[in-house]
Hints:
Elements: E1 4-10, H1 26-41, E2 55-56, E3 59-66, E4 75-85, E5 89-98, E6 104-113, E7 115-118, E8 121-124, H2 129-132, H3 140-143
Antiparallel strand pairs: 1-4, 2-7, 3-6, 4-5, 5-6, 7-8
Amino acid sequence: MPYEHKLIRRVEFPETDMAGIVHFTNFFRYMEYAEHDFYRSLGHSVIMPHLNPPLGFPRVHASCDYKKPIRFEDMLEIHLLVKEKRARVLSYIFKFRKEGETEEIARGALTVVCVSHVPGKMEAVPIPAGLADQIQVAPAELLG
């Protein structure tokens, strides 16, 4: 059962500031890209419009600590690890590295809640078994 997922992508010019360093806000996009790719790797999507009512996973927490810059044209490895899994909640940590290197350049966290999209309101609901059964929590030694 998956508890981790890796995504590698090139840093593009519009993601950088005037110094050619990735702007801090893009790390939140990178976490979202990796999360969505994780769901796709399991045969799902971050939104589930085919269910009645449709489901989605809005964020209730997002954070990122920066340790070292990454620059335009660098290859960035985004390592998603499942930190916590509850009936309605998934928490992830993200370790960012330059491809081929071991030093962490940033570390992020996301907590998402499964919600139903009923017109005019959102309500926390259990994660569908078809998805929840495919996800497990990463071993503690990988989370540190």
